């Protein structure tokens, strides 16, 4: 592990409030029936993870384990309720596909807008423009509004822009699930190159095989706690085991009330 | 199990934390200014998206004020005979109308701005003040055609630029824009948590339209209402903003017989200072509430 630290998550706790009633009418009805107006639910419970510069870490866990929440906290979208998070350098992420792509703008305009959202200035976007378009492989659709794109093209453009922002810490959430096999291959190669250049990566995905290829370290989360932090193979095996358990015991233990990441 | 949270000892322990910063710790409006390239792109996107697929495009920003103007002119100016009481009534009314429309548009659009960008707010960290500020700038773009018309008509009636006129216009604009973004920050943040906010704002804009001397001169209030009511009326920053605009664009075209409230300029500056204070409050409220935006959306 490298000496310099890229991400330091220290004792982070995050709770969500689930409000059952929003309108005054519903609140009154629930109050009269003596039902609870809200539930607190702990998505992350004193999670501490330190990621060194140049590491490729997978956040693994079944649905609702808090991995997406952790990624959002690292990206700064959500502040933690307790504990601290610190990161080094430019953090950019693909938290779900194409958050910054606007359907009414053309592909070209979206490259500039989304690039700016992810922290690039105009000169940098211009410099990388050709490379972004080539990687996304959207050809003559470049000057068409993005809403006419197929889901594959949409995803390719989003990924291409994000990957070209050259962040110091790259956060990836569930994006590699879509896309055609060819492009997927290209993405994985690109991420490998990226990792080889000594930068940091944090990935959330459900595909154990893919994570084994890309990551060196796995952090397994369950119900908001770190169950395992170490080599990727153990973490991936743990995921497969938990999935089997879950499939077998559908009647068994109560799951947390809701999926944390939305 | 957790790797090295005790931090590697020795030399690089100090070096280690040098570049580490807390993510998502926005610097508020200052951060928006620092990322003005992004702000510009977002404003352009808003303008593009709004007129996407419409035949008239930005031409709609002429049609709306024109329709407003026609309605108010015929009802107030012709039927209610305001044209007889107020010299050059069209320019009197229109100079007020552009400012009121600007304020109402700013307030309504900023209120929806954060919710309208929910996918971004939820997934990428940006200084969230970007969205209300972008809405304000879009309203500013829409103000330009209206102002151009006001200036053209006023010039036909003999308006020439003077320091007093331009100063009044700038003060009026600064006052209304500051008030708009201050309230907009608060409303946009509240709207994330309570979707009633835009209904309240909608009703508020109705009051704004009628509580300013737009289709009647302020002297009507002076002559019919008790003194304290007039004081209350003139404490309304929108009324003062409108009076300043009328002093800038309408008054120079008249014979100058109609009076403005005493100390209008001073009131304008006092209210501007208060609007700046309110902007500080708005920024504070927004900064507090925005911490829970991502989970609420």
TrEMBL record, chain A:
GO terms for cellular component: membrane. It comes from Actinomadura darangshiensis. Keywords: ATP-binding, Nucleotide-binding, Transport. This is ABC transporter ATP-binding protein. The keyword ATP-binding applies. Belongs to the ABC transporter superfamily. GO terms for molecular function: ABC-type transporter activity; ATP binding; ATP hydrolysis activity. Residues 29-248 form the ABC transporter domain. SUPFAM superfamilies: P-loop containing nucleoside triphosphate hydrolases (SSF52540). Coiled coil: none annotated. InterPro entries: AAA+_ATPase (IPR003593), ABC_transporter-like_ATP-bd (IPR003439), ABC_transporter-like_CS (IPR017871), ABC_transpr_TagH-like (IPR015860), Bact_Polysacc_Export_ATP-bd (IPR050683), P-loop_NTPase (IPR027417). The lineage of its organism: Bacteria, Bacillati, Actinomycetota, Actinomycetes, Streptosporangiales.
UniProtKB/TrEMBL annotation, chain B:
One of its GO terms (cellular component) is plasma membrane. It holds the Pfam family ABC2_membrane. It is found in: Cell inner membrane. Keywords: Cell membrane, Membrane, Transmembrane, Transmembrane helix, Transport. InterPro entries: ABC2_TM. It is a multi-pass membrane protein. One of its GO terms (biological process) is lipopolysaccharide transport. The keyword Transmembrane helix applies. The chain crosses the membrane at residues 62-80, 92-110, 130-157, 169-194, 200-221, 270-289. Its main location: membrane. Signal peptide: none annotated. Residues 38-242 form the ABC-2 type transporter transmembrane domain. GO terms for molecular function: ABC-type transporter activity. PANTHER family: INNER MEMBRANE TRANSPORT PERMEASE (PTHR30413), TRANSPORT PERMEASE PROTEIN (PTHR30413:SF8). Belongs to the ABC-2 integral membrane protein family. This is ABC transporter permease.
């Amino acid at each position: 592990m490298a000496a310099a630290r890229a991400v330091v998550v220290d004792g982070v706790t995050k709770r969500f409030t689930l409000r059952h009633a929003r309108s005054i009418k519903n609140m009154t009805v629930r109050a009269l029936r003596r039902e609870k107006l809200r539930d607190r639910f702990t998505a992350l419970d004193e999670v501490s993870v330190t990621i060194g510069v140049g590491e490729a870490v997978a956040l693994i866990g079944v649905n609702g384990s808090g991995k997406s929440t952790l990624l959002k906290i690292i990206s700064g979208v959500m502040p933690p309720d307790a504990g601290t998070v610190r990161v080094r350098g430019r953090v950019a992420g693909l938290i779900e596909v194409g958050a910054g792509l606007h359907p009414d703008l053309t592909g070209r305009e979206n490259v500039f807008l989304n690039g700016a959202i992810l922290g690039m200035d105009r000169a940098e976007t211009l410099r990388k423009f050709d490379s972004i378009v080539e990687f996304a492989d959207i050809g003559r659709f470049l000057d068409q509004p993005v809403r006419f794109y197929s889901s594959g093209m949409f995803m390719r453009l989003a990924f291409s822009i994000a990957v070209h922002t050259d962040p110091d810490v790259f956060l990836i959430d569930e994006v590699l699930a879509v896309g055609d096999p060819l492009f997927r291959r290209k993405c994985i190669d690109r991420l490998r190159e990226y990792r080889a250049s000594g930068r940091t990566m944090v990935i959330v995905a459900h595909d154990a095989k893919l994570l084994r290829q890309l990551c060196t370290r796995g952090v397994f989360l369950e119900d908001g706690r770190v169950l395992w932090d170490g080599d990727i193979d153990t973490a991936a095996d743990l995921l497969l085991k938990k999935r089997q358990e879950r499939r077998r015991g559908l009647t068994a233990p109560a799951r947390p009330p809701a999926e944390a990441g939305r | 199990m957790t790797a090295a949270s005790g931090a590697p000892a020795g030399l690089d322990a100090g070096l280690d934390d040098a570049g580490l910063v807390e993510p998502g710790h926005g610097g508020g409006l200052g951060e928006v200014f620092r990322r003005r390239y992004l702000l510009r792109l977002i404003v352009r996107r808003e303008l593009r998206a709004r007129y996407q697929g419409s035949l008239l495009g930005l031409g709609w920003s002429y049609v709306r004020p024109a329709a407003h103007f026609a309605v108010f002119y015929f009802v107030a100016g012709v039927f209610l005979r305001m044209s007889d009481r107020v010299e050059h009534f069209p320019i009197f009314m229109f100079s007020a109308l552009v400012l009121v429309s600007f304020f109402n548009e700013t307030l309504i659009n900023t209120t929806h701005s954060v919710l309208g960008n929910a996918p971004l707010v939820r997934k990428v960290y940006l200084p969230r003040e970007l969205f209300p500020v972008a809405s304000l700038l879009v309203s500013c773009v829409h103000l330009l055609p209206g102002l151009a018309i006001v200036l053209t008509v006023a010039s036909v009636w003999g308006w020439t630029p003077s320091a007093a006129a331009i100063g009044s216009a700038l003060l009026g604009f600064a006052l209304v824009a500051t008030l708009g973004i201050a309230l907009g920050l608060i409303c946009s943040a509240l709207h994330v948590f309570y979707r009633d906010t835009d209904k309240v704002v909608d009703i508020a804009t109705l009051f704004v339209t009628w509580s300013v001397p737009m289709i009647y001169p302020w002297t009507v209030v002076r002559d019919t209402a008790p003194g304290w009511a007039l004081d209350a009326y003139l404490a309304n920053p929108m009324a003062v903003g409108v009076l300043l605009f009328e002093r800038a664009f309408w008054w120079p075209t008249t014979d100058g017989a109609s009076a403005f409230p005493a100390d209008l300029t001073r009131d304008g500056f006092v209210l501007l200072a208060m609007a700046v204070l309110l902007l500080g409050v708005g920024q504070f409220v927004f900064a507090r509430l925005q911490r829970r935006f991502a989970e609420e959306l």
